[in-house]
Design a protein that fits this description.
Chain lengths: 107, 122
């Protein structure tokens, strides 16, 4: 199975900060990488697909980059509603594995 | 709008089985795959398997092979996930999620159902 490793596991930041979350795959997955946001008690929500494409309706402060094994999710200016847990996921091959999550908390 | 609505919470005893439903609306049911993903309390996301509603073919995570079964009813646009021989480690929120295919390649999961809590306890 492809292992997905996110860093950091948790992060404290302030409104207006620029934040970057990293995801590393245990083997090359080209651009088959998605990012999801999950708030407590809610289902995950798609933010970014194919490593860098912004899902319709998602604010432009979210962006994704990378290919191969190393990927990043960047939030350019944190808003109060962005405090949540973020997961990367590879759709290169089954089983479609997820990272362990990055919990973004208010400083 | 596209919507996935799941059945309600379940409490089961160890060794029992559970069947969770996921009713789709707002799109052509047989044109999109459906995944199942689970999340144990305070933990991350684990992919369980996928079903093609057009024909019913399935693929499961090896860890759950033999215990999980995905089926569908095209007349009601509903997908079912059945998990047998339940143990305490199966306590989790179970999600269905629509799978989008792009040029024949499985891509992202969107949208997701609201989740169904399955509690396994004696």
């Amino acid at each position: 199975d492809i292992q997905m490793t996110q860093s950091p596991s948790s992060l404290s930041a302030s409104v207006g900060d620029r934040v970057t979350i990293t995801c590393r795959a245990s083997q090359s997955i080209s651009s088959y990488l998605n990012w999801y946001q999950q708030k407590p008690g809610k289902a995950p929500k798609l933010l970014i697909y194919a490593a860098s494409s912004l899902q319709s309706g998602v604010p432009s402060r979210f962006s994704g980059s990378g290919s191969g094994t190393d990927f990043t999710l960047t939030i350019s200016s944190l808003q109060p509603e962005d405090f949540a847990t973020y997961y990367c996921q590879q759709n290169y091959i089954t089983p479609y594995t997820f990272g362990q999550g990055t919990k973004l908390e208010i400083k | 709008q596209v919507q996935l609505v799941q059945s309600g919470a379940e409490v089961k005893k160890p060794g029992a089985s559970v069947k969770v439903s996921c009713k789709a609306s707002g799109y052509t049911f047989t044109s999109y795959y459906m995944h199942w993903v689970r999340q144990a309390p305070g933990q991350g996301l684990e992919w369980m398997g996928i079903i093609n509603p057009n024909g019913g073919s399935t693929s499961y995570a090896q860890k759950l092979q033999g215990r999980v079964s995905l089926t569908r009813d095209t007349s009601t646009s509903t997908v079912y996930m059945e998990l047998s021989s339940l143990r305490s480690e199966d306590t989790a929120v179970y999600y269905c999620a629509r799978g989008v295919m792009v040029r024949g390649v499985m891509s992202w999961f969107d949208p997701w159902g609201q989740g169904t809590l399955v509690t396994v306890s004696s």
